[in-house]
Amino acid sequence: MNLTQRDWLFTVTGGLLVCLVLLPLVAMLFDLLRLGLPVLGWEFLLTAPSNAGRSGGIAPLLISTGWILLVCLSVAVPVGLGCAVFLNEWLLPESRLSRGIGLSLDVLSGVPSIIFGLFGYQVFAITLGLGFSILSGGLALACMVLPFIVRTSQQSLAAVPAGYRQAAQALSLSQTGMLWRVVLPTASPGIAAGVVLATGRALGETAVLIFTAGYVLRQPDSVLDSGRALAVHIYDLATNVTGGTSHGAATALVLLALILIATTSVRSGAGLWSRYMLEEKR
Amino acid sequence: MRDQVLRLITGLAALVAGLLLLLILAELVRASWPALTGLPVKAWLFSGHWAPGDGQFGLGAMLASSLAVSVLALAIAAPAGILIGAWLHLSAPAWIAVPLRALQGVMAGIPSVVYGFWGLITLVPLVNQWAPPGAVLITAVLVLALMILPLSVLVTDAALHQVPARSLQAARALALSRWGTFRQVMWPTVRGSIASGVVLQFGRALGETLAVLMVAGNVIRWPGSLTEPVRTITANIALEMGYASGLHSQVLFLSGLILLLLVMACMLLVRGGLRG
Amino acid sequence: MSLTSPSTFSASAEVLPAHDQVVQSRAPVVSIDQVSVFYGDQCAIQRASLTVQPGQLMALVGPSGCGKTSLLHSINRLTDSVAGCRVTGETRVGELAVNAPATSLRELRTRIGMVFQQPNPFPLSVADNIRFPLKEHGLRNKQALNQRVEQNLRAVGLWDEVKDRLQQSALSLSGGQQQRLCLARALAMEPEVLLLDEPCSALDPVATETIEQLIRSLKGHYTVLMVTHNLAQARRIADAVTVCWVDEGCGCVVETGSREAIFVNSSNPVTRAYCSGEKG
């Protein structure tokens, strides 16, 4: 076999493989649309489910999902960003503490979600007495997404030009002022990318939530109520409810659309904030 | 003054983030302690007999199933991912490579429950035609491989980006074939990153819960054939934690602890390998 | 919390007088005595001694790697935040002992302004680049702030060029304009000493010419230490010159003296070889 033939083989094999991989993806989209589209509509989004989800809509689940995500991000973002700032602004990268925290976070980012489910159940639901609640679920999710937020924030903080810091030192500026006016706005697009990643994961997560936020289909009255997230709903419809397939497919479509919307909106929000902070202050 | 306050607050955040892993580990050990000390190792690690009602807590078969499913899924996804990654770099025209990369990113972001759902409604009936009941080991392997593939492609792609442009230029100047370029020039440089990527994906596969649970059939038995249902360790936790109590619940925590230690070993292997 | 009370910033709204006018007496003597800088085991410069008279411009010249920049960074203690960096010896700015434990970093750095090799304005608006540091140091009065912006932009000859786009990002300015903005930012803090770390090396010849003019006009008002690679530049604008060299892997001061003493009358073989272009 000469060179050209081998190259040709490589190109063709690769191309065929790509087609082979794209096939299930196309099939997945097709199946979801085929089953889900007939159900999907405003009514589906705005009404409560009935008959265990076989009919009706997903309105309370949207609300539960939103609350869980809100709890998750409002804990994970400040803690993660704080940790990144501490690692970046006060610790030398080679120091033992910095390396230890880094290693711990790296390992944490690979811990399976079901472990966070077990941990959240044991600590938040049982020990802290929060029960099966949106708060428990959101906190457990926050633990899961924390390493992603720290890592991406840290990378974007480190990417802020060293010249800014040198100038700030020579001018004897406070770290707080520098952080707020220059460093964070400059780094915010990168930080937002981490939050986007976290949002996507949190929205699609199921195993963490089954034993923390729980199963209850009703609309939650407070964060101490149990609430079922969209992803959990899909799981439940697929495995525990016969005849729930089309509603499951419709829910999956909504979930995919939400992930898409959430990720784009977080990104543009950060862009706006960055521009606002770096512009003229009166 | 303001700086001191900020330092304190962010330091606290760093402390929480840094200790979370240890806290999780400690909590799993604490919750599984009675089982860990009360049951002989032989009874939970090596036995395949799981009947919580009768006091039988053998995790062996489920552990073996977890490993089998993960290894097989990786055996499909890793080579395919590496090949596609190389193909993207060397053969694909830009109008295919650019959207395909983006698509891999999107695929990596699809929640596992959606993969599981699709596997259940499409793949299970399909497999059922030649291997009833359809929800069997090979189905789980296929779904898992599909989930992991984009990660494998993305890791390979990122690694190949690090090959110095001058090496590629030299290869082009010597008129090496595409395959030759990949094999001789790129592979030696990226081998390490790809290997750590594979280990990471193994950890990911081992910990996957929902997608596998939905399509694997969940019958507890030692994995012997591709066409028989199995139950993984993660699926077992998800299925039984809801009603477990006492020793049953403690053994479930123990199985979580084993899983955590396996995944931690993977991560530490990668970290050690990267440094070495 | 603010060591520099707002009253320090009382309006001395006068534009800087041209340099042949009365020399301000605020500029202190800077004396460096047996200063060494180490990075871990690596020695950057060893036992350097030199003195800069009030209001004079001292040029530090020498080949790369001879520790000029490290020496400069030790004067306002930027070396503090470099991991593993150690400074020995004694540096005095006026009556202030730089390396004494009791010396406040904040006081030291407000008395010493610095301009770096790469222009490094903050990614803020042109005006905020000057306002933000002043606010940080306790100047809150809006009118005073705006006055300070105009005064210092005029001092560096930038006012007419940017007065209509004070609200635009400083990053939209040209390299030379950015460097002048950085100088204005340093001057706004009303320092007594200026450290210039190869301020022209990243600029084109025209911008370099402008900055040189500007530096010339600063003489007399500030005690200036300038690191430069450019011997001709040192010859043009320096009052005094220090020649650094690398000796056994470590930087050192070969000779220090007035411009004439170095460029015309030096008897030191290294200085003569370097200044004539035979070495370095």
Structure, explained:
The complex is a heterotrimer of chains A (282), B (276) and C (280). Chain A has 282 residues and is an all-alpha fold. Chain A has one domain: Orthogonal Bundle (MetI-like fold), CATH 1.10.3720.10. Chain A contains eleven helices and two strands. Chain A has helices spanning 3-36, 42-46, 59-89, 96-109, 113-127, 134-158, 162-170, 175-204, 207-210, 230-239, 245-278, and strands at 49-50, 55-56. In chain A, strands 1-2 form a two-stranded antiparallel ribbon. In chain A, a hairpin with a 4-residue loop joins β1 (49-50) and β2. In chain B, strands 1-2 form a two-stranded antiparallel ribbon. By secondary structure, chain B is mostly helical. In chain B, β1 and β2 form a beta hairpin. In chain B, α3 packs antiparallel against α8, α6 packs across α8 (178-207) and α10 (233-240) runs antiparallel to α11 (246-275). Chain B has a single domain, classed as MetI-like (MetI-like fold), CATH 1.10.3720. Chain B starts with a helix and ends with a helix. Chain C has a domain at 26-122 and 196-275: P-loop containing nucleotide triphosphate hydrolases (Rossmann fold), CATH 3.40.50.300. Chain C has ten helices and ten strands. Chain C has helices at residues 68-75, 105-111, 126-136, 142-155, 159-162, 175-188, 205-218, 231-237, 259-263, 269-275, and strands spanning 30-39, 42-52, 57-61, 85-93, 96-97, 112-115, 193-197, 223-227, 240-247, 250-258. Chain C has a six-stranded mixed beta sheet with strand order 6-7-8-3-9-10, with helices on both faces. A four-stranded antiparallel beta sheet of chain C has the order 2-1-4-5, covered by helices on one side. In chain C, α3 packs across α4 (142-155) and α3 (126-136) packs parallel to α6 (175-188). Chain C is globular and about 55 Å long. The model of chain C is unreliable at 1-24 (pLDDT under 50). At the A-B interface, α1, α3, α4, α5 and α6 of A face α1, α3, α4, α5 and α8 of B.
Strand elements of chain C, count: 10
Name the CATH class of chain A. Mainly Alpha
CATH-defined superfamily of one domain in chain C: P-loop containing nucleotide triphosphate hydrolases
Briefly, what CATH class of one domain in chain C? Alpha Beta
Mean pLDDT of chain A: 89
